[in-house]
Design a protein that fits this description.
The chain has 117 residues and is mainly alpha-helical. It is 65% helix and 0% strand.
């Protein structure tokens, strides 16, 4: 990724790549479809948006896997607490990532499996 300051448009699209995951409250799998659409449509135009799009998509896939495991663990009760913690973590770091993108900063989600490099 180049070290030039991203334009306002690039920062906006990078922020959208993160915030569109909240569409999952309305659209099934919106947390994956949203960042995927932004990333695929803008990755060629901006290294900054490419980075943020991949990060958002990788984090969405990772948290979906963690949620599935936590859901399975609800059988032994600990999964309930894991789901609550995961939900709070997901919302917090997603908002942090969107703010960093809007500020023109590179952000890497913690605890993320990087499927797309």
């Amino acid at each position: 990724m180049d070290h030039m300051t991203p334009s306002k448009d690039e920062r906006t699209w990078a922020m959208v790549a993160h915030l569109v995951v909240f569409s999952s409250f309305i659209i099934p799998f919106g947390n994956i479809i949203g960042p995927l659409v932004v990333w695929l449509s803008k990755r060629e135009q901006s290294a900054f948006v490419d980075h943020h799009g991949k990060e958002a998509l990788n984090f969405a896939i990772s948290t979906m896997m963690y949620a599935f495991v936590s859901f399975l663990l609800t059988i032994v009760v600990i999964g309930i607490f894991a789901l609550i913690a995961l939900g709070l973590f997901w919302m917090t770091v997603t908002i942090m990532a969107a703010l960093k993108a809007n500020d023109g900063e590179v952000y890497r989600y913690p605890l993320t499996i990087r499927f797309i490099k």
